[in-house]
Amino acid sequence: xxxxxxxxxxxxxxxxxxxxxxxxxxxxxxxxxxxxxxxxxxxxxxxxxxxxxxxxxxxxxxxxxxxxxxxxxxxxxxxxxxxxxxxxxxxxxxxxxxxxxxxxxxxxxxxxxxxxxxxxxxxxxxxxxxxxxxxxxxxxxxxxxxxxxxxxxxxxxxxxxxxxxxxxxxxxxxxxxxxxxxxxxxxxxxxxxxxxxxxxxxxxxxxxxxxxxxxxxxxxxxxxxxxxxxxxxxxxxxxxxxxxxxxxxxxxxxxxxxxxxxxxxxxxxxxxxxxxxxxxxxxxxxxxxxxxxxxxxxxxxxxxxxxx
Length: 308
What we know:
Helices cover about 90% and strands about 0% of the residues. The protein contains 10 helices and no strands. Helix 3 (about 50-65) packs antiparallel against helix 4 (about 70-90), helix 5 runs parallel beside helix 7 and helix 7 packs antiparallel against helix 8 (about 155-170). It is rod-shaped, with a radius of gyration of 56 Å.
């Protein structure tokens, strides 16, 4: 670790010496650079490697803003040394820190239009994210990769990366969550003046809104269709009930008519028998009266005969 710190001090002295002997690039802020470098070395001395790498990336960014790529790459090598020493002490790889330094190198090589080095670094970054299995780093890599493809004019691949990023962020979310994801990515694109991303997101957002409207319309149509079919089914059930009731009513009327006819027939038959009984009674009464008269007549004749 002492060797690394000595190397850091020598590297910064060389950078500072170069800054004093050469013309200061436009936009250089020596005080800010000195402050960042001091923090970088301080964190390294305290073995706070994560913070040291974060500060080292800020130092590298300042160098690249001033077109001092040689110094920026030297800073990355110093961070590599710190990470390597930490890995040796912990006996475990520092994939996240290596990802951060690799991403910084990729940014610089992208600015320098060095395609071959960019491809190598992208492969390394993919291997780090595969090892870490971190969703946040995978999203970060997709954004970095999209920027790389965009810089080198590979618009289709860049849009594919943005689409994959959006799918990851919107996975498992409801309509409001997806809508917010679109707005967040649009806001990011506008904030970073990323015109291709903004255009792509607007197209996707518009297409998604149209699809949502189409789905809502289809759902409303299905709902109306289901209501119509339900009402038709209820009407058919009611019609069937009415038909059934009419059949029952007609059957009851027929049965009532039959019963009424039967009752009339029975009544007529009853009246007929009543009349016959009356006739028989009259005939029997007449016969009885005749028999009485005959009996009286015979009795009279018998009485006369006896007198004679």
